[in-house]
Design brief:
2 copies of one chain form a homodimer.
Chain A lengths: L5 H19 L4 E2 L1 H8 L3 H10 L10 E2 H12 L5 E6 L3 H10 L6 E8 L7 E3 L2 E5 L3 H8 L3 E4 L6 H11 L3 E4 L12 E4 L2 H11 L4
Parallel strand pairs in A: 3-4, 3-7, 4-6, 7-8, 8-9
Antiparallel strand pairs in A: 1-2, 5-6
Helix pairs in contact in A: 1-4, 2-3, 6-7
Chain B binds a DNA duplex (22 and 22 nucleotides) through helix 1 and helix 3.
Chain lengths: 206, 206
DNA sequence: AAGTGTGAACCTCTTCACAGCA
DNA sequence: TGCTGTGAAGAGGTTCACACTT
């Protein structure tokens, strides 16, 4: 499978989410304009995305929801599921942990790390918390490929280095500091302070 | 001032953040390539952004950091500061509240809302928590223009309607559900589950 | 008539390439 | 020589417009 555009991948996640709701409401087929309405986007966009993943609908009925869900699953998931770790179990870290886990069948946080000895060697939200100096060992042993960074900003560069050595392939950075990662690591910056400031800017003038 | 591209606004927030660090480290001028390094972007991008805000550097010294900070401040901030409210004080909501407040001088969360009577009429992280049915009243009285939505997904549509009536101009949506907002409201979707799935997709192969 | 599938135009953002300056 | 400022090209994403199908 050729790699899909980033924006299309994001929308596929969202399609799947609303398709689950739709199917449990008893519908079996859906038109592009219905799906578009649910996500507040245009029908053309929906059709283009579906074209990109090589699926075809039927004219009278639209798209078969079950087929679409399982096709999107093939694209987004791996059969065994993917494993993530969260590094930094402060306020934000632990609420992300509980918020996220259980939301996706094939993607879950299976390990947590912190420096605080009060937190390590305990279980939070069903997940074992290890001391940070065991990062490499645990990540390698468990085959973790995705790391969620919620440590204080000044600690992130060192940790990134260890993550890279440990075989992590993707990092979600909640730290308000631009990370320098090797080319072979996919980085997603998730900086809510910047996002808030952006919103604030765009609502400045009445 | 003509409205700036979205991506440029995001970077301006980040420029300002690192410029504060740079100036407290004793530097007074900075070259585009230095600023670019700090943010892991290209020098051309930095120069283009600075061009867009109508500032000019000098050839031998680069940009005057103080000037740049105050110019960015003029662009991003309002003199009085902007006020935000957070709606939903669950795990995620309260950690966002404490994480965010104090990070920016001209932008702060000054009110919180929840349905749970255990939480209302108390103070969290220095912020008063009101019952949701006082949304409109409080938002109007305090002149709040930005709302952060961290309620369970099924409650969001109703709340958006009230927010719109109350004069809110921008919404940050942490809810995993596409919101339908009127045209005059700026919406920022902040969906970490989708972002995680996206990262997971891009690290699938190899 | 009311859908889907898609080439082409369009828009936004980034990068190239280079003129100009101290 | 080593920087800034910027027109123009390029890349990525969205929308238009319309052919096609039942």
């Amino acid at each position: 499978m050729i790699t899909l555009p980033e924006k299309t991948v994001e929308r596929l996640c969202k399609y799947r989410r609303v398709l689950y709701n739709t199917i449990s409401a008893g519908k079996q087929h859906i038109f592009s304009h219905e799906l578009a309405n649910l996500l507040q986007i245009t029908p053309v966009q929906v059709r283009r995305d579906i074209m990109l993943i090589g699926y075809s609908g039927t004219l009278r009925k639209g798209y078969d929801i079950k087929d679409l869900i399982s096709l999107i699953g093939n694209i987004l998931d791996t059969p065994e599921g993917q494993k993530a770790a969260i590094i930094g179990l402060g306020n934000l870290g632990s609420s992300i942990l509980t918020y996220f886990n259980g939301k996706r069948a094939k993607l879950s946080i299976i390990a947590a790390f912190d420096i605080d000895p009060q937190k390590t060697n305990r279980v939070f939200g069903g997940v074992q918390c290890y001391p940070v100096d065991r990062l490499e060992e645990v990540i390698k042993a468990q085959g973790i490929r995705l790391a969620i960074l919620t440590v204080p900003a000044n600690q992130s560069p060192d940790i990134v280095e260890v993550l890279a050595m440990s075989g992590v392939k993707g990092i979600m950075n909640f730290t308000p500091k631009a990370l320098h990662v090797p080319d072979n690591i996919y980085l997603e910056e998730y900086d809510m302070v910047t996002s808030m400031e952006k919103v604030a800017y765009f609502i400045k003038q009445n």
